[in-house]
Amino acid sequence: MLAEDLTRSLLDTLERPDLRCIAGPLSLTFDTSLPIPFLVRDTQVSLGPLAFARPDLAPTLLRHAIELARLRLDAPDIPPPLAGFAAARLAALFHRLDPRPDGTPAPAAPDLPWLTELATTEPPPPAALASLWTALAPLAGPCPTPLHQAEPPLDAAALFHTLRPLWPFLGPTESLMAEGGDERLTVDPRTGLNRYGCSHRPRPWAITFASSTASSLSERGFEGAESARRHASVALLRGQTPAKAQAAASFEARAALARFYGLAGADQVILAASGTDCELAALAVVASATARPVTSLLIAPDETGSGVPLAAHGRHFSSETACNRPVPRGDLIEGFPEQTLLIGVPLRAPDGTPRSSATVDAECARLTEDAVAAGRHVLLHQLDLSKTGLLSPSPALIAALRARFPGRIDIVVDACQARIAAARVAAMVRDGAMVMVTGSKFFTGPPFCGALLLPEATARRLATAPLPAGLAEYTHAAEWPPTATPLPQGANFSLALRWHAALAEMTALAAVPPARIRAILSGFRDLALHAIAAHPDLTPLDTPPLLRAPLAGEEGVEDGVETSWDEIPTIFSFLVADPVRPGAFLALDDSRRLHRWLNADLSRLVPDDPLAARLCHLGQPVPVPSPAGGDILGALRLCAGARLVSGEPSHEGLDASARLAREHEDARHALAKIGLILKNWTALLSADPVPHYAPLEPTPHTSGPQ
Question: Are 383 and 348 in contact (CB under 8 A)?
Fold first, then answer.
């Protein structure tokens, strides 16, 4: 390898966003005289000559050094062997996250034997630990404490017994966040992305307007999750049991959500792996507290998650739960009543146009009246918002039905898109509605982090109404108020980490004045509507206005001027012209192809246009009826998320005006790439390129993610 390639590889490593954002107070130097891979001294990390000889190992070496240095800074009381093996174990798993460009595993590293021996499901036996410690011990200088004394001889047997129960939890944040959900979180080693087309690592080079579906983490979100993982790791290494350390992370997330939404405390918050799991939790809360059979009125079942209708009926909605339990999809979950009746209320007419609010309200009122007359309890859903930005039924109808049928109706607001002011959510909960939210849509946290917010009276009801037994296959006690029974002890640590990532974004958004949020979202709305309408291949879908009551207080009006932001549309859906059939739109399957290709580097297939290399991630296509009948069409979505308001950390250095100008230009680039793909449709259809975590290298080299 040429010298300039070596230098570039090392510089690429130093600039990796997943490493740069977690280094914190550490500084990095190179020392070619070191006889070891690296050396940690207080806040300084020195990489030795191995990083030059094997630049493909440089990311692993740096990740190992960062973990070891931060452990010793955060908790100098942890015995060096315990900290040393915890850091090396994390590095061994991290090494496997960086496959070769063809998706094959990273090559073995004879210079670093622990990368193989510590990546196993159990810690090595005592004799092997003692042998490895001779290589690991020199990597850290003296422990940064004035009480440091000569280290006692290694007790390898005791170390083995200490490490064994901790071993499954000593992993990189990005791999831990990919657990505790379902197969959609699994990262494809060929692409570095999951089935949503996003990554648990920061991906600042990608144009991302996908917040109606899922987003890759920003550096801010990644550091939020990493901070929570480090905190739990320190607790584990100090002797706390895994169950307690993970439960603490879940409680902290629940408490932070309660503060964000102005609730009394964590007992009003249930964590759930997804919006669909929230749906199941809401039915469990209602069904356990009433002797009447439940009628669940679900709004726009075709515009919610695909498993939501099953969950709303108390049935297994996937073949595997977030607790990694195999279950028979579609079967009734143990303890949920068989008499539950699910009725869907569509938001669109057969031709795809939105039904009027009055029409939907009238249908909901009639169905509620019929259910109550039949001696049933009603669980009425309010959708706020659908995948294409629709809101229904109206708040006025909700209030009227509550007044007419006290004690016979529960309201659950599906606010999983989270495109709603926190003060408005707080008011809904105070008024007696349960509210489902996620951190993975508008807030741009990682996929699979949901929560159900409970009114205080509903939360108190849990103490006297045992939950369905089958719920234990989906959740743990740490995700619920302590009065909820019966649930298994423990926690979904991966879910807690994902929420800590989302909470970092929520905190950043909360620091922006409502008037500023309104101005930024209004500007993006104008840009999006104009850009879509001006594009010759795109046809926008009409979205009715969001009719919300004005908010009182500082989040609603300032100096007599409206400042609330959540009536401004932030999802802009559109159909795409079919390049093969003039006058037709892309059918759903072809829209899905387009969505994947937007997120791929096409420069090797379309080499003469720099736009081809841009990675563009939009909201996944939503099925929409064709106005002309026939094929189901796919509507793509250009979406504004919280990061548009609070700013991408990767945009640091740009003033507010320049940053927003760049965001608007990125949106235009994403739409322009659609036109480029349509012009090259036949060639791309033959090649069917896959999405990529990062742009392809113009010439192969081994450093960093491909």
Answer: no
